[in-house]
Amino acid sequence: MSFETINNVLTIKTDAIMTLAMAALLLLLGYFIRGKVKFLSKYCIPAPVVGGFLFMFVTWIGHATGAFSFQFDAYYQNPFMLAFFTTVGLGASFKLLKKGGVLLIIYWLIAGVVSIIQNGLGIGLSKLLSLEAPYALLSSAISMIGGHGAALAYGTTFEEMGYPAAKLAGAAAATFGLISAVLIGGPLGRRLVVKYNLKPDESDSFLGDADQVNVATHDKLSMLDIIKNITAIIFCMAVGSMVSGWIGQLIGMGFPTYVGAMFVAVILRNVNDKLHLYKFDFPLNDKVGDVMLNLYLSLALMTLKLWELADMALPMLVILLSQAVLLSVLAYFVIFRLLGKNYDAAVMVSGMMGHGLGATPSAIVNMTAVTEQYGMSRRAFMIVPIVGAFLVDIIYQPQTLWFIRRFVEGFIG
Fold first, then answer.
1. With the C-alpha atoms ordered 223, 229, 232, 238, is the resulting torsion angle positive or negative?
2. What are phi and psi of 4, to 5 degrees?
3. Quick one: which H or E segment has residue 10?
4. What is the pLDDT of residues 275-294, one digit of tens each?
5. Alpha carbon of 257 to those of 79, 90, 225: distances in Å?
6. For residue 211, with 0-12 CB atoms within 10 Å meaning exposed, 13-18 middle and 19 or more buried, which class applies?
7. Which is nearest to 198 in space by CA: 371, 379, 329?
8. 90, 107, 363, 407: least surrounded by Cβ within 10 Å?
């Protein structure tokens, strides 16, 4: 860390290790504050968002007063992002798909159509609001479906294309989505249960559950087993980055590296399920993913510049509010009926609001709020996480890339 005075402003420069250390401390601070502030824990606001946004206000004060500024070396941000999405891919076993049946396919297709509608709404409103397309798309499916990870990943790509506030816009949109998801999802699900006097089916023999596929063996992992699991993650990161590079050359534009890493991981996971190349341990994989995501988000958020969002705040807010209203209307009047108009459908609607506006953890929070009061829905808890965490990407990623090619390149060229 060094301190210099540049243009009468105290400039604090941090190397990659110091930046990472600060991010880790902010992450712990975020957990501490979230534990003390009930609103933050109740509505499932992630700890890195709490700590990161708090530090963003510190940097904003420095900018507004002209007293100080920071220059960060966020070298580790991209590797952590790749590692997280790789662990998501390694958690996706095709065995889970067989347990979901027709209802999983229906829910998956609905989620995919919702992502297309979100991008269409964002682009349509951007024309009326004179908002550049990248910021409109970051206020649409990228942040609503993909959450903070996807928003910051695509934001990085957009910044490289000449839109300097893209990461900040994506982070802000994803945070709005996360909050609105948990504010709307649970109450909407409960409203459907009460209105139609829905009850869980006690005779339901549906036993499919993600934990049955990803359950821990309870065998003690040897050091070699742990190394093999970590090596698998690193291998998928490396090969996936190459795959993303090839796809980028093929389509003539930047392609997020995490997408390639995730899909390579899916392939490795399911090949390993058949051939047993190494002892895959889901709990270890899941914990590594959680750590990588938290550090990645903390790094990404702490380095954002809040003041760069000022000129686009109102147009983005209009789009984000429209996204929340539209999905609520679709979920209540259309999606609930398409899913069967029963108790499982009501719980799944609350989950749809969670990962359709925020993230898969928000979906779990919403469904838990409903089922704790009215009874368990095993179908919902099996299907929603699979679709929200992985399957929806198969539809939302390609069509989002089409929107980028169709509209963003037009603004650049």
1. negative
2. -135, 155
3. strand 9-14
4. 999 999 888 988 898 888 78
5. 10, 16, 27
6. exposed
7. 371
8. 407
